[in-house]
Design goal:
Blueprint lengths: L9 H131 L1
Length: 141
């Protein structure tokens, strides 16, 4: 009876060995598939890293260009502002000169108006005296 026990039965042992070999073969196939997938993922990730590095290099280069453009634009803006400030200062100086001339001319016009008024008063006095003298001259005759 011991000869026919499942642990010692050659058919059962053969079946068990075949099942174990099938499982080992299945595990090896799975390991190969996993290895292939991992290799493909590794290649894909390496390509992605290369692309990312390339994009970073391009972006860094572009940022340097933009920095340079901004520096040039800033310099131009500063020069433009200096020119505008200079022009504004000149215009303010001209405005002050014109305002001063206007004040002087107003004073001159006021003085002239006073002189004309005084002259008219003197003419009125002269006319009054002439009229009075002619009235006296007529009265004497």
């Amino acid at each position: 009876m011991l000869a026919n026990s499942p642990a010692t039965d050659p058919k059962a042992v053969g079946t068990k060995i075949r099942n174990t070999l099938d499982q080992i073969e299945l595990c090896i196939k799975k390991q190969c598939l996993i290895s292939d997938v991992l290799e493909q993922e590794t290649i894909s990730n390496e390509e992605l890293f290369v692309d990312i590095d390339h994009m970073l290099d391009k972006n860094t280069e572009r940022m340097e260009q933009v920095k340079e453009e901004l520096a040039n634009a800033k310099q131009e803006t500063v020069e433009t502002l200096k020119n505008l400030q200079s022009q504004l200062d000149e215009d303010q100086e001209k405005q002050q000169q014109l305002e001063q001339k206007l004040v002087e001319r107003r004073k001159n016009m006021y003085s002239l108006a006073i002189l004309l008024n005084n002259l008219e008063e003197e003419e009125d006095i002269v006319d009054a005296l002439d009229t009075h003298a002619s009235d006296e001259g007529e009265a004497m005759e």
